[in-house]
Amino acid sequence: MGSPGGQDSAEFDCATVSVHMQGDGNNAHHRRDHGGHSHGLSADADVRYLAIALGLIVTFMTVETITAMISGSLALLSDSGHMLTDAGALGASLWAARLAARSPVGEWTFGFKRAEILSAAGNGITLLIVSALVAFEAIRRLIHPGVVKGLTVVVVALVGIAVNLVAAWMLSKANRSSLNVEGSFQHIVTDLYGFIATVIAGVIVVVTGYERADAIASLFVVVLMLKASWGLLKASGRILLEAAPKDIDLGDIRAHILGTDHVSDVHDLHAWTITSDLPTLSAHVVVDDSCFSDGHIPHILDHIQACVSGHFDVTHSTFQLEPVGHLDHEKDTH
Fold first, then answer.
1. Quick one: pLDDT at residue 6?
2. Sign of the four-CA dihedral 185, 119, 244, 263
3. What is the pTM of this model?
4. Domain boundaries 245-329, corresponding CATH code
5. Phi and psi at residue 37, in whole multiples of 5°?
6. On the CB side of 189, how many CA atoms lie within 13 Å of its CA?
7. Chosen CATH of 43-240 out of 3.40.30.10, 3.40.190.10, 3.60.70.12, 1.20.1510.10
């Protein structure tokens, strides 16, 4: 390492150190939940729960589609259409979970962890598309109501509630801090509320003969789908556009680092998320020139590492430690 003070040579007095903190049996910090990050659930468990939920949904979807055609219920048909997107979402989630579990290799330095976020965004988009289709047909049925077999609707919807309760229970046991799993969970919960609305609509049709209740229930499902879609697209969009995690205050992080002895400045501070449970941080930290010759650098790094790990649950961080003169050689600092 060269001598302190800014040099024109590319061999600067700076230390770029990447710290990836792994939890182990002796480190209680990494066994806790921090800011919604659950570290104790395995990817294999998520795959198992997703597979069970997928089997339940596909089986019932087939029965419901046939029943909807026989009964003439748009509410049931919209539910079965939504369950088709559920099946697609669960299948995509299974695929993404398996991809995310692969180890980094070659140019894929983070592996395929972000596949989970792409799957979540896909879930949001499918909810949006299906909601538009159902809304169009519901409005048409409000204007020109069809014949609806209310009793059949009630029976099938009650079975649907039971199936979705079991599927939701299975997914609730998975790691819902994963946006991928949460996307599938939102699909199932939306379906559950939709079936409750369908039961109410079926009862109204049986008791009063008011067949437009079926279309009104469908519009209620549309509202739920739009709400779930917005939440998923907003959350996945933040990650794909590499916004700072919502639970990380960059100003607070900067203040903590500046509170370290011998640190005079922090710049190029960036925080983003690789996938749901992998927040990432990088920063240039300016330290006293003397630290590069008197052995303080390792102690400063240890302090900063403990700070971001203990206070902010950042499991992957990269710090460039540099002398005061180094800033003159940097461009486009942040």
1. 40
2. positive
3. 0.67
4. 3.30.70.1350
5. -85, 120
6. 14
7. 1.20.1510.10
